[in-house]
Amino acid sequence: MPRVPSAFAWILVLSLVFNQFAIGNISAHMGMGIPLSFGALFGIAPAHAAEIVMPMLNTDGKTTNLQFMPTISPPSTTKSKSLVGQAQATMTGQGAPFYAPQGIRFEDPIGAQSAWGSYEKLPLSSDLEARYQRLIDQFTCNFCCGSPADVTKNRFCACAHAQAARGFFRYLLKTYSNTYTDKQLFGEAYRWQAAWYPRGAAEDYLLATGHGDVLGHKTHGGAGADGFHGMMK
After folding, report:
1. List of long-range contacts for 211-219, beta carbons under 8 Å, 24+ apart
2. What is the pLDDT of residues 200-219, one digit of tens each?
């Protein structure tokens, strides 16, 4: 008969897994990368109901690191078994999110981009305007302009997707005030960026979850001198 692992063996295995998870999170807080999820230890990280990976500014204000970020809407559903398919499903939404004006859908990224952009001049109260200014000063435009060593901040980008992001921020602040945190707004705004730049968003996600070799990683704005957000040291 095959030998059944003892309770001690199972405890040892679970201890090793927990240690790796803890080390990954401690390393992240020390500036050595992003936190590990249990899914990342055994394959691609799972499509959490409200979490994606996105570039966030480093303290130099010019380069970015990859971070898990909460969102507002859930990820797409997929039957794909491939890492690429799972990455794309995690990064993008589907259907018409509950918070969006009528007619805005993830399946119509170009129409949604134009619609969100129309809200760029929406007036806000003084406190929400101050918050809006902070958001567009930290949210980055990664795939359209800038350089690996000098990413373009959203406030300075004239591209259509940047205008759409500004309209998105204004609409959510006007409609929901302080219901959502800055991190949730960043994450949800980036879910729309993933609809407009699906390849780049999937590459970053795969890189962050230990599968950068699947699609490769084309350098982009803010990716740093190594082109990999400092993750290939």
Report:
1. 211/44, 211/83, 211/87, 214/83, 214/84, 215/84, 219/148
2. 999 999 999 999 999 999 99
